[in-house]
Amino acid sequence: QVQLVESGGGSMQAGGSLRLSCVASVYSISPYCMGWFRQAPGKEREGVASINSDGITRYAASVKGRFTISRDNAKNTLYLQMNSLKPEDTAMYYCAANRWGCGSGTPDTVNFRYRGQGTQVTVSS
What we know:
- By secondary structure, the protein is mostly beta strands.
- The strands form two sheets. Strands 2, 4, 5, 6, 9, 10 and 11 form a seven-stranded mixed β-sheet that branches. Strands 1-3-8-7 form a four-stranded antiparallel β-sheet, with no helix packed on it.
- 0% of the residues lie in helices and 49% in strands.
- The radius of gyration is 13 Å and the shape is globular.
- Strand 7 and strand 8 form a beta hairpin.
- The termini are far apart.
- The protein is built from no helices and eleven strands.
- The model has no long low-confidence stretch (mean pLDDT 96).
């Protein structure tokens, strides 16, 4: 069982930046595909970004060029740097993990086995 705990959410004005963190309670996240997805009220879940065990990253088109996913395996921590935030980025953001790889598709196609409780990001105009 992998437990994931997110932090770093908050309220921000459009154009600002936030960095989300996710600490995993597992011996090592090294072999895991890690990612972030988000869900806003009344909207479908959206895969935001993924990073595989080799450090290869993929992004949703809606965040590409603004968000950066990274991982620190030594700290068992996943990050999401969010820049140039927009009101439409407002959502609950969830950290997720999958032991069996990210696959070759977009973050939406990853079948994440584990997820955290989420951290709220609110962007005002």
